[in-house]
Amino acid sequence: MTRIASSTALLRATGVWKSFGDREVLRGVDLSLATHEVVALIGASGSGKSTLLRCLGLLEPIDDGQIFLGDADISDPRVDANSVRARFGAVFQSFNLFPHLSVLDNVTLASRVVRRMPRRAAEERALALLDRVGLADKAKDHPDRLSGGQQQRVAIARAIATDPEVLLLDEITSALDPLLVGEVLELVRQLASDGATILMATHEMAFARDVAHRVVFLDEGRVLEEGTPAEVLAAPREARTREFLARFTA
């Protein structure tokens, strides 16, 4: 497992609240993520994991609290949200690839449009990334020619093409056939080993145990428990955590 370079938080949420209408989804969440750290975010469906990731990446506004990236308060409404979003890489349950673009164009899009990288340089980097994820031979194909696992690997390649400071991964294996889950998790394992900073919402408890530095249990919009994988997954303190984890050992 990669050593965490610093205990100083690269990404930090303090007292984050988020509601949709009368429904409170996040209720005073405090969370931190250090450079090169891998944090697994676990919890039942509806606990607020996806909403938290979207808020952290400025894809949803928060109702209260603060979010810091480094020393900057990125939840300040005066912040240029697009420039902040460019510092994140995000991958979601649905692959969100552009169906009318080739694999290569999907991977290069952000580099060319957001980072203004010349096409040749963007394509050289994209081809290197596609080779890394085992899909160099699919560069000219369109997404509908790929399996779900291949599409998700393309989505990850696209997310890391701009060298993001933080990767936000939201249940990226939940829409996959069980036979394809392993190939995607192995790619994330490689990224973690290379020192990527990752916050990953997941139901893959074995993966969280083996790869994460910390596990955070979100329950009804609050952080109920957090600690090392051994602490949270093997010896949880809270009854709600034990109840949740029992579903995976029954």
Automatic annotation (TrEMBL):
InterPro entries: AAA+_ATPase, ABC_ATPase_HisP-typ, ABC_transporter-like_ATP-bd, ABC_transporter-like_CS, MetN_ABC_transporter-like, P-loop_NTPase
UniProt-annotated location(s): Cell membrane
GO MF terms, alphabetically ordered: ABC-type amino acid transporter activity; ATP binding; ATP hydrolysis activity
Pfam family membership, one: ABC_tran
Domain of life: Bacteria
Single GO cellular component term: plasma membrane
Topological relation to the membrane, as annotated: Peripheral membrane protein
Ranges for domain ABC transporter: 11-245
Keywords for the protein's UniProt record, in alphabetical order: Amino-acid transport, ATP-binding, Cell membrane, Membrane, Nucleotide-binding, Transport
PROSITE patterns: ABC_TRANSPORTER_1, ABC_TRANSPORTER_2
Chief site of localization: membrane
Family per similarity comment: Belongs to the ABC transporter superfamily.
Name of the protein in question: Polar amino acid transport system ATP-binding protein
Species this protein is from: Microbacterium invictum
